[in-house]
Write a structure and sequence with these properties.
417 residues, two-stranded antiparallel ribbon, 72% helix, elongated
Length: 417
């Protein structure tokens, strides 16, 4: 592992095995930062490409809230909410219905809005008629009048004790600090209470009229349809379960072509001895690998793997979900060790690389072209041969068998070397 890190640092700051100057290094670092920022911007954009559960099922939370409410006025509340949204700045300003707003979620996204939510929005839009909006305006105005009358009554009651003391003390009315005299306070309270009762009765009649509208009864019947809600809830839960995995798949699909291209260019540049291109492509390869590793760890925390473990631990241990962290603490190092072994064995195996370079008449260390009879590399100075411990003839370094006696060099080599 240490050898791989040393090799990475050496390749990141050398061109043809020669250190690059400080100005060039600064330029490369700036390029790295710029590209890395654009990679993360691209990842954010492609993450939003596939519709999220809240975009595909925009009516779910509101419908679930309706289902969970136990108050007797929940039918009226959802109707008033729909009308108030139309009266607000959003809908009435743009003259858009709720169904059109839901359909706009399809623009620039992969996926489609749930047909159940579109049906829900259609029923909501049918409520938003001018006469229903006028009824709601009258209700809101009456409620404002009631609130003002109640505030007035509260003020009168607060001042009533003070006016009684003024009357007992025979203080002149023009010197009173209160707005209503004690003798008129009770009369004013009774008059205001009558107005409040009349306004409340008018509101009750208006609310019953609003609920009795055909478009309102259609919406309420649809909301009370348990089969439609269960279909919506099941689809939403399934979409929420798979969404992190889909996001990771899109992000990996965005990064993998960049990684493969950078790796391909780097290999070509090394073989052709294009030092600067090899350096830049190596930096790009590292830059593209960093976000991929971060997304892998993020996926392990929120993706299907985490959900699978969460479900298992919920069944086995109930609320002891913190035990999942123990699994990650022990599992991730094991997976990391397996990945390291894989790359050491197959990707960065020095014996495999040395064999390929020998076939191409290249230095077994730096990969540059040399003559077959050269003992030392003219580019990096690496000794190409080592003494066979069996026949004592010089054989190629870093290869598994002696090219004179065919004896295994792995068996004879010191494991501590």
């Amino acid at each position: 592992m240490l050898r791989l890190l040393n090799r990475w640092f050496r390749k990141s700051k050398t061109v043809n095995n020669e250190p690059i100057n400080k100005v060039s290094l600064i330029v490369i670092i700036l390029i790295d930062i710029f590209i890395l920022a654009n990679v993360f911007i691209g990842l954010a954009d492609i993450s939003d490409w596939y519709m999220s559960p809240s975009q595909a099922y925009p009516c779910y939370n509101e419908w679930r809230s309706y289902q969970e409410k136990t108050t007797g006025k929940k039918d009226l509340e959802i109707i008033e909410k729909s009308l108030n949204e139309w009266l607000g700045d959003g809908l009435i300003k743009n003259r858009q219905g709720l169904q059109q707003i839901y359909l706009d979620n399809n623009i620039g996204h992969l996926g489609k809005v749930s047909p159940v939510c579109l049906k829900y929005a259609e029923y909501q839009d049918q409520i938003n008629k001018p006469q229903n909006l006028e009824i709601l305006r009258n209700i809101n105005q009456s409620q404002l009048d009631i609130n003002k009358l109640k505030e007035t009554n509260s003020t009168i009651r607060a001042q009533y004790d003070s006016t009684l003391l003024e009357k007992i003390a025979e203080q002149p009315q023009n010197q009173s600090i209160n707005q209503v005299a004690a003798g008129k306070a009770k009369q004013q309270l009774e008059q205001n209470n009558r107005k409040i009762a009349i306004a409340e009765s008018e509101i009750l009649v208006a609310e019953q009229e609003l609920i009795a509208k055909p478009e309102s009864t259609r919406l309420i019947s649809f909301l009370q349809d348990q089969s439609s809600f269960q279909e919506l809830s099941s689809s939403y839960q399934q979409a929420s379960f798979w969404y992190p995995s889909i996001q990771f798949a899109f992000q990996a699909g965005f990064l993998l072509p960049l990684i493969l291209i950078a790796l391909f260019v780097h290999r070509i540049a090394q073989n052709k001895r294009y030092g600067l291109i090899s350096l830049i492509s190596w930096h790009l390869l590292v830059i593209f690998l960093i976000p991929l590793l971060l997304k892998i760890f993020e996926f392990l925390q929120v993706g299907i793997v985490f959900q699978f473990l969460r479900n298992i631990f919920s069944v086995l241990f109930g609320g002891l979900l913190f035990l999942i962290n123990y699994v990650y603490i022990f599992l991730v190092p094991v997976v990391g060790f397996a990945i390291i072994k894989f790359f050491q064995q197959f990707v960065f195996n020095t014996k495999v690389q040395a064999a390929k370079r020998l076939q191409n008449s290249c230095c077994v260390s730096c990969g540059k072209k040399i003559r077959n009879q050269d003992i030392f590399c003219t580019h990096c100075g690496y000794h190409q041969y080592v003494e066979c411990q069996s026949c004592h003839h010089p054989t190629y370094r870093d290869l598994s068998f002696c090219n004179h006696c065919g004896h295994s060099q792995d068996e004879l080599s010191n494991p501590n070397e």
